[in-house]
Amino acid sequence: MRVLRLPRAEPIRQRSVFGFSSCFSTLSAALALNCLDVLYTKFLAVVEGTQNQANRLYWHAHTETLGGAVPRNHQPEYFGGSVAAAAFYDLEGTLVKTNLVHTLGFYARNQPGLVSSLKKSAATLVSLPVFAITDQYSRKVFNDLYFKRYKGQSEDRLRFFAEELFETVLKPAVFPGTYELLEKSRSLGLRQVVVTGALDVSVDHLMAHLGITEYVTNRLEFVNGLATGRLLPPVMAAATKASWIRVYAEREDLSLSDSYAYTDSMSDLPMLSIVGHPAAVNPDMRLRQTALHHDWPILSLK
Fold first, then answer.
1. Are 211 and 182 in contact (CB under 8 A)?
2. Is 257 among the domain residues?
3. Torsion sign across C-alpha atoms 185, 191, 192, 196
4. Whose CB among 98, 122, 188, 231 lies 3.0–4.6 Å from 173's, allowing a Cys bridge?
5. 170, 7, 185: which is closest to 88 by C-alpha?
6. CATH number of the domain enclosing 287
7. Residue 171: which of 203, 198, 139 has the closest Cα?
8. In a domain? residue 59
9. What confidence score (pLDDT) does residue 213 get?
10. For 135-156, how does the pLDDT look when each residue is reduced to its tens digit (9 = 90+)?
């Protein structure tokens, strides 16, 4: 849920004495982010394997969507309002095409000074193969490695650039079908809840844009205003998401058997398994096969 905080002073961006820092910083930032996106996408394709045309046709033949909205055959029976239920969403890869690495890349190129920006961007690029492999192996290991990259980051600076992150990276990445899915879900009387492993500071503006007021995120630990590289519990990933949803549903008196869950990743299988209406959205290879096996709807919001 959203936590209100007092406004903080805006950090001052450092300028080069030569006057060229802005140009070089912009160029290096664009190159770093483009490389980040391309390399990460290509590496994931190698890890997961390339899907041939026959499999793609088989996938679409078993996909049932209502223009990217709630599947036709899975309308809730409580429409009259006698039972309270919710729609639970993963965020990265599900409602937006970006992932956690895009956010890290953005902050890496917005360090105080050209040298710091280049160092952070280079370190992020070098880490891409490790991130991709660990994300396939264990979400916990991925989180441990990934969030350590934020160590030493100023909380004030992260919050200062949050709106720019939203406008330049996250907002353009919202899938076209996301808006229709949310609108249809709201029309059914479902409470809209996002359960994401992203950082609170990075998604606040996006949640406001999507009109979602109930969401849970990961939170960095800060000491004296600087990130330690560790997360505060509970860490939103895999089975922890499912546990959080159970506690939330019990507290809010929601029926999980009448609720929906949407995600793109096999790591969120526990989250899908505890609701009555699971759906795979833009799924990875393993989740797609699992969804086909269980006859779960597969949605494409792209």
1. yes
2. yes
3. negative
4. 98
5. 185
6. 3.40.50.1000
7. 203
8. yes
9. 94
10. 666 667 777 778 888 899 899 9
- The answer to whether 198 and 92 have CB atoms below 8 angstroms apart is yes
53 pLDDT band (50/70/90 cuts)? very low
Place of tokens 């980051």: 153
Residue 28 contacts residue 265 (beta carbons within 8 Å): no
Number of domains the chain contains: 1
Residue 276 lies in a domain: yes
195 in Cβ contact with 245 (< 8 Å): yes
Is 163 part of a structural domain of the chain? yes
pLDDT at 234 over 60: yes
Numbers of helices and strands, H then E, in the chain: 12, 7
Helix (H, G, I), strand (E, B) or coil at 225: coil
Which range of residues forms the domain containing residue 211?
21-299
Name the more confident of 131 and 178: 178
**Residues 212 and 281: beta-carbon distance below 8 Å:** no
In this structure, which amino acid lies at residue 201? V
Q: Look at strands 260-263 and 226-232 and give their pairing.
A: unpaired
